[in-house]
Design goal:
mainly alpha
Length: 380
């Protein structure tokens, strides 16, 4: 007969109970950790969604870009919201849908073509699309090579695109995320931040257009023209982008004929390459810029600023461009013709005279002066 040992049975029971308890304990904390991570993840998602929704609702930290959309007569509110999302006017279609429902947008929405902005708040979008067709008039303008920011701004104002002062403020203080903009040096004597980069071309604008969007049209075109091939040539030239654009702006103003740009560029390159003999470029157009584009906008004299542009005073290139050059002048600045010239001038008929020495230059000036006033490298 088998003996019964209570102590042994009790010991076996206690061990089994402990193992089961530990297993339940581990499962309990495992589920707790999973639940905790789920709650934290959900909380993070809700917080992130709330933040982005608030940003979208108020139009905060969004790009300033005018966008044209057309709402057709047979479109319902959901289709309009999808269109707004597709055009990047809104980022959170669900949030907009809820807000539009609160504002009864489905009752006030009117078909038509609208000019909206990607930085509009929801209220502004709903109000604009409840007012009916608001297509703005457009104007097409041509800006020629060598125009300055002052001249561009005046033309924009004369044609009701935007105000001159607002345009200048956009030039000086606007935020633009083009790669080349970060390569423009910040110098205390740089008068117009983006002078040289407002690419000359024909553009179409809206009447009453946002000034920063106007500036973006010019800069976007410059970015397209600055192809990888051209940019590589600039980097291989030994000069910075800004130095090339500055030199190109002088060439553009000095050479009225495209076929002369290579020779004119060679004169300035030759001088830049021999600074001991020719420390100054002596270009009249830099003085014209000081007199016409800087001095009229200052309340007090700033000789240091004037001298930083005046190539009869400063050595080498001026502090910044003095005009907005076209692609021919830019290429001439990158790839000048190879000549032995250090001087040039033009007569009243636009004929160019080049010289290797001061003596030859004096003779050219004597000959050209018989026809009238000459223009070019100083006789000093």
């Amino acid at each position: 007969m088998k003996e019964y040992h209570p102590s042994n049975n009790n010991e076996d029971f206690t061990k089994g109970d402990t193992v089961a308890y530990k297993k339940r304990y581990r499962n309990h904390w495992g589920r707790a950790f999973v639940l905790l991570f789920v709650i934290l993840g959900l909380s993070f998602f809700i917080a992130f969604y709330a933040l982005t929704s608030a940003r979208d609702l108020l139009g905060l930290d969004k790009p300033d870009k005018q966008i044209e959309i057309t709402v057709k007569k047979d479109m319902n509110l959901k289709q309009v919201i999808n269109l707004l999302k597709e055009k990047n006017i809104i980022e959170q279609p669900f949030t907009f849908s809820v807000y539009a429902g609160i504002k009864n947008m489905d009752e006030t929405l009117k078909p038509g073509t609208y000019i909206l902005n990607s930085n509009m708040a929801y209220d502004q979008i709903i109000m604009a699309m409840s007012a009916g067709d608001k297509v703005k008039d457009t104007v097409k303008l041509t800006f020629y090579e060598g125009m300055t920011i002052k001249e561009i701004g005046r033309k924009l104002e004369e044609n009701n695109v935007c105000g001159f002062d607002q345009f200048i403020d956009a030039i000086q203080n606007g935020q633009y995320d083009y790669d080349f903009v970060s390569r423009i040096p910040m110098d205390e004597h740089r008068f117009r931040r983006l002078e040289g980069y407002m690419f000359p071309d024909t553009y179409e604008f809206y009447v009453g257009m946002n000034p920063e969007q106007v500036v973006r049209k010019f800069l976007s075109n410059f970015q397209k023209k600055l192809t990888p091939e051209i940019d590589a040539k600039i980097k291989n030239s030994g000069k910075s982008l800004d130095q090339i654009i500055t030199l190109a702006s002088i060439i553009q103003k000095e050479a009225s004929e495209t076929e002369e740009m290579g020779k004119v560029s060679s004169v300035f390159h030759n001088r830049l390459d021999t600074p001991t003999t020719f420390p100054k470029l002596q270009s009249d157009v830099t003085i014209f810029y000081v007199e016409k584009d800087i001095k009229p906008f200052l309340n007090k004299q700033d000789q240091a600023l004037y001298d930083s542009y005046n190539t009869y005073v400063c050595e080498g290139l001026p502090v910044a461009p003095v005009a907005n050059p076209g692609i021919e002048a830019i290429m001439a600045a990158i790839e000048p013709e190879e000549t032995p010239y250090y001087f040039f001038l033009t007569d009243v008929n636009g004929k160019y005279y080049y010289a290797k020495t001061a003596e030859e230059h004096y003779q050219n000036d004597y000959t050209a002066s018989k026809l009238g006033k000459t223009h070019g490298i100083s006789m000093q």
